[in-house]
């Protein structure tokens, strides 16, 4: 008589067998590549806290997009960093702003790329908050008009998707109404629906020059301790017209990603944020981890948790590794 127990190792005996039964895959098409554009010419400045990520001037964007296309990445998201900032973030909705000019240039040269516009005010305001500020308070309803104006301006420039990240109540409704009124009924909204007040954003704020000049963002971004609140936020955005739902950050919120995926039948996006990226980069540079192995494991974990797309600063490296494999 034999030993009667399950021999799960039968399906792990060699690489071909493991590939045959693999459940989760990561493809270049799953990746959204974020990049930062600044004013001026002939600029390519590495961000100290984000090794391998650069602030690019508009004249260097074409070369960057050539590489993105060559690697098989299908979508990018633009973060514009203006020289001039004011209380109401007027460069965010300026038709000749740095973000709008970047979008137009990319769509003219690379029409097949899906260009996503980050729609917020924080990197355009002199106080660094994501809305209108009065007497030290971030005003919700007064911010909605400016966010809608920003979205319409980005759509006019050629943005394929609007991705509002401000976390004001009613922002999806305001932007959907603004886009529809302006004739952009076919432009979808990729909502930062579930965005936590996280410590993982630090390097991004260096890159986008968007740190709050006073206080914090805890009155509009979510408490990291909350789980059920994420479902309320996601439900509201879908009812208001969102086409995609983003969960941000990703790595410490895989349970939230799975909850959102289980409850809502729309494409789910994970934002693999700057702090998550920088920790791996720092450890790899010190020789403490195998960068390729740990990045691939991290991103496959996000796919396994339920995301359809991953917005990640690792995108070019991952696409390159996938080609090599």
From TrEMBL:
<keyword id="KW-0350">Heme biosynthesis</keyword>
<protein>
    <recommendedName>
        <fullName>Delta-aminolevulinic acid dehydratase</fullName>
        <ecNumber>4.2.1.24</ecNumber>
    </recommendedName>
</protein>
<comment type="similarity">
    <text>Belongs to the ALAD family.</text>
</comment>
<comment type="pathway">
    <text>Porphyrin-containing compound metabolism; protoporphyrin-IX biosynthesis; coproporphyrinogen-III from 5-aminolevulinate: step 1/4.</text>
</comment>
<keyword id="KW-0627">Porphyrin biosynthesis</keyword>
<comment type="function">
    <text>Catalyzes an early step in the biosynthesis of tetrapyrroles. Binds two molecules of 5-aminolevulinate per subunit, each at a distinct site, and catalyzes their condensation to form porphobilinogen.</text>
</comment>
<comment type="subunit">
    <text>Homooctamer.</text>
</comment>
<keyword id="KW-0456">Lyase</keyword>
<dbReference type="Pfam" id="PF00490">
    <property type="entry name" value="ALAD"/>
</dbReference>
<dbReference type="InterPro" id="IPR013785">
    <property type="entry name" value="Aldolase_TIM"/>
</dbReference>
<dbReference type="InterPro" id="IPR001731">
    <property type="entry name" value="ALAD"/>
</dbReference>
<dbReference type="GO" id="GO:0004655">
    <property type="term" value="F:porphobilinogen synthase activity"/>
</dbReference>
<dbReference type="InterPro" id="IPR030656">
    <property type="entry name" value="ALAD_AS"/>
</dbReference>
């Amino acid at each position: 008589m034999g030993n009667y127990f399950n021999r799960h190792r039968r399906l792990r005996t060699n690489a071909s067998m493991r590939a045959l039964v693999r459940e989760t895959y990561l493809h270049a098409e799953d990746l959204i590549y974020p990049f930062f554009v600044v004013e001026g010419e002939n600029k390519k400045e590495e961000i100290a806290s984000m090794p391998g990520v650069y602030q690019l001037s508009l004249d260097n964007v074409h070369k960057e997009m050539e590489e993105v296309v060559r690697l098989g990445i299908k979508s990018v998201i633009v973060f514009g960093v203006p020289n001039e900032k004011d209380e109401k973030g007027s460069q965010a909705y300026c038709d000749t702003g740095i973000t709008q000019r970047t979008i137009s240039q990319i769509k003219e040269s690379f029409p097949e790329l899906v260009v996503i516009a980050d729609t917020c005010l924080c990197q355009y305001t002199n106080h660094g908050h994501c809305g209108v500020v009065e007497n030290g308070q971030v005003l919700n309803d007064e911010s909605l008009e400016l966010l809608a104006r920003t979205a319409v301006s980005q759509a006019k420039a050629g943005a394929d998707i609007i991705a509002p990240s401000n976390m004001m109540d009613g922002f999806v409704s305001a932007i959907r109404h603004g886009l529809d009124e302006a004739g952009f009924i076919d432009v979808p909204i990729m909502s930062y629906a579930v965005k936590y007040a996280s410590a993982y954003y630090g390097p991004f704020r260096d890159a986008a020059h968007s740190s709050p000049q006073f206080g914090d963002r805890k009155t509009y971004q979510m408490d990291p301790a909350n789980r059920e609140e994420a479902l309320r936020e996601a439900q509201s955005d879908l009812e208001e017209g969102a086409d995609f739902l983003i969960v941000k950050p990703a790595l410490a919120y895989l349970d939230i990603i799975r909850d959102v995926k289980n409850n809502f039948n729309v494409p789910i996006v994970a934002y693999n944020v700057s702090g998550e990226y920088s920790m791996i980069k720092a450890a790899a540079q010190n020789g403490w981890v195998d960068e390729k192995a740990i990045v691939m494991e991290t991103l496959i974990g996000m796919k396994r948790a339920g995301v359809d797309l991953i917005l990640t600063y690792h995108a070019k490296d991952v696409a390159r590794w996938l080609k090599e494999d």
